[in-house]
Amino acid sequence: MDIDELPLLLRSRTLSFYVVLICLVVPLWSTIPISWLFVIHTLVSARLGSFAWLGQLLFAVALWEVLFSVYYLYLSRHVSRPAPCGPGDPREIQAAFRRLLQSGLAYLPEDGGDEESRRPGSPAEDVIQLEFDDPRAIDFRNALRSWFGNAPWSSIKLHEVRQWLYWSIYNADLPPYETLPDSEKSIVNHALGLLQKRCGCIFKEGSNPAITPMRLTLDDVSILWRPFIFYMIVHAINLTLKKWYKINWNARFDHFHGLEYLTRLPKHWDPVIGPRPLVFIHGLGLGLLQYHSVIRHLFEQFSDRPILVLLQPQISQHIFHPSYLKPMTRHETADRMAGLLNHLGWMPYDIYDENSTSDDSEDEKQISHALLGKRKEGVTVLSHSK
Q: What angle do CA 307, 309, 314 make, to 5 degrees?
């Protein structure tokens, strides 16, 4: 039996699971309901006046958690609505889809090959018709079924695949297929044809109501509350780490047109002949707290070159940040990142034009252009996403 037909294996629970559950998870999730019960009981019994200072302090903390939970409910309702983003540029989506299908097509020798070998995700590979038992097709089918609840591959039908493809292209629910305009049918069918080649099979006609494709911008958002104290602890640790980076590594925190970042610039680095700067883009988590070991490792191992860390409050539990629920789009982020690297003199890319919003003076721009004219190497980008 192919791996794409095997049911998803559940991991066995070890002692560490129950330790974390009892000592961390249960206290965290129970903070808000306990706060509600304590506040209601205190108000109903009118015992607040009889509390000593410690009891009044606990009541104040519990009341704040109650008020915060109401605000949290408001935020959860806000993000549970369908995402407002439009369908996007069809050409860009088609290019991204083809790049996805090319991933893993190239064969590599067992030793990984040399620098001249093509990578598994090389865009030089053509999307060809694979055989059903081709290992590349099996691996791809096994990965793709995660978008369908990890259901056995044979149970995924054509209608659900079309739903998933239509959402990925147009960010909308699939209307009755017969009512689609010819232009949309052509795009969906073209994507479907490429997908079937990569999977090594033709999707079975029909529908399976037991399977619902994952559509991130349309599906209901499942939210479990976190107490205010959790965000305060994370925020306090991140502030402490910022101070630590400044003191120990002479790091600098700044922003470029709303793009927040951390930089560490060695004193004797030469922008013309020095080693290539390193850019680190973190993923979803707790911000500096979660990636502290990685950042510290980069600072220690690459002390001879500049390091830039892109800070993203919208995916770092920075709940009170103005951009927490209004992050930049990927295009805005990419444009500002290009402008920042140009501003630092690290990238041979002219971002300035007559519509530029940069605050740099003409002298600063000329210096940046002079550096870019000599330096052609660019930067090394390291990223992580959960």
A: 175
DSSP β-bridge partners for residue 310: 261, 281
Q: Where are the alpha helices (DSSP H) in 80-181?
A: 90-102, 135-144, 158-170
Closest among 19, 31, 14 to 66, alpha carbons compared: 31
Q: What percent of the chain has pLDDT over 70?
A: 85
The DSSP bridge pattern shows strands 307-311 and 278-281 to be parallel
Total number of domains constituting the chain:
3
Would residue 279 count as lying in a domain? yes
Helices and strands, counts by H and E, the chain: 11, 5
**Mean pLDDT across the chain:** 85
Tokens, residue 187: 């795009």
pTM: 0.76
170 and 34 both lie in a single domain: no
Give the integer Cα–Cα distance in Å for 229 and 178: 53
The mean pLDDT of 253-280, rounded to a whole number, is 91
In angstroms, the Cα distances linking 99 to 25, 112, 174, 192, 381 are 39, 21, 24, 15, 19
Q: Determine the structural domain holding residue 344 and report its residue range.
A: 228-383
Name the DSSP class of 22.
Answer: I
Burial 134-159 (b: 16+ CB within 10 A, else e): eebbbebbbebbebbeebbbeebbbb
Please compute the mean of the pLDDT values over residues 62-88 and round it to a whole number: 83
290 and 355 in a single domain? The answer is yes
Q: Based on the fold, state whether residues 329 and 234 are members of the same structural domain.
A: yes
Residues 149 and 170 in one domain: yes
Question: Do residues 72 and 98 share a domain?
Answer: no
pLDDT tens digit sequence for 164-192: 999 988 888 999 999 999 989 999 999 99
* Phi, psi (degrees; rounded to nearest 5) at 278: -115, 130
Residue 115 scores a pLDDT above 50? no
Q: What is the largest CA-CA distance in the chain?
A: 78
38: its two tokens = 């304590």
User: Distance (Å, rounded) from C-alpha 68 to C-alpha 74?
Assistant: 10
Q: Tell me whether residue 135 is in a domain.
A: yes
In a domain, 99, yes or no: yes
Instruction: Give 147-156 pLDDT, tens digit per residue.
Output: 999 999 999 9
